[in-house]
Amino acid sequence: MNSPAPVLRTVLGDIAPDAVRGPALAHEHLVLDLDHRGDGGAVLAAGRHTAAVTAELAALREEYGLALVVELTCRGMGRDVRTLARISRDAQVAVVAATGWYYEPFHTPEIDRGSVADLAATLVREIEDGIGTTGIRPGVLGEIGSHGDIPAPPESKVLRASARAALATGLSVATHAQLGRGGLAQLELLTAEGLPPHRISLGHQDLLDDPAVHRELAASGAYVAFDTVGKDSYQSDDTRLRLLLALLEAGHADRALLSCDISRHGYLTSEGGQGYGHLFGSFLPEVRAAGVDDDLIDLLTRRNPLRFLSGANVEES
Length: 317
Hints:
TIM Barrel
């Protein structure tokens, strides 16, 4: 009996992975609210910022062929999939929505009340039935969060539940490792539940200046996300470039994912920020200047994220 063909689940419906011919942003936010202190900075508000976000994505489609955004805003992060669908339709860029829970400061009450099995069942219901009453189904579990070298007990519960939901539904898991720490512990928890490493992306590894850890994660078969490109207040792009080149030179180009993790409205180009296009306009030219050719760029920005999300081995562009 033949296995079903891999599909990519977007907010506007399923598409074939090989229909995505341009690059992807593997970890972004288009609508979110992480503002716990009242300053309003960690917000991309539906309505107030939607037009600017849409305009940026449309411009990147025109200039660089941007074809896909993996939007990792999940439960407790101000997720709004109706607005994601509107942005996707208006910008003509495919968007993958997420489900799961972020790290502990943003946990919702059901995490304390529920068992691992309860939480996994909640995620499976969203994946199979859609988010709320929208009918829009998530295409990835993420960004599943922890902080520190070892996840806190509630974070461990969420990671285990996410692995079980991934196994039940065929989706992959993208994590938030605060400041790049704890990726190995996340990987251990997820794989202990039976989730294969190739269905796991360990987030924010470009904030951890430890090439040995990156090699260990990649050697396991997991994806290593260099997904805060342009966030110079956390790490310089010079350091990111050095870390990425080290991973490529170690033979792990097929395990790297790239993105910018735009998570504040001040990062939008309309407000003077680096924008979603910093990866294409600033960082990738530096990668090319270091000797990386166009085929490898396509691997990093298109084939890797498509394989992570769907399991499909897409052809070279």
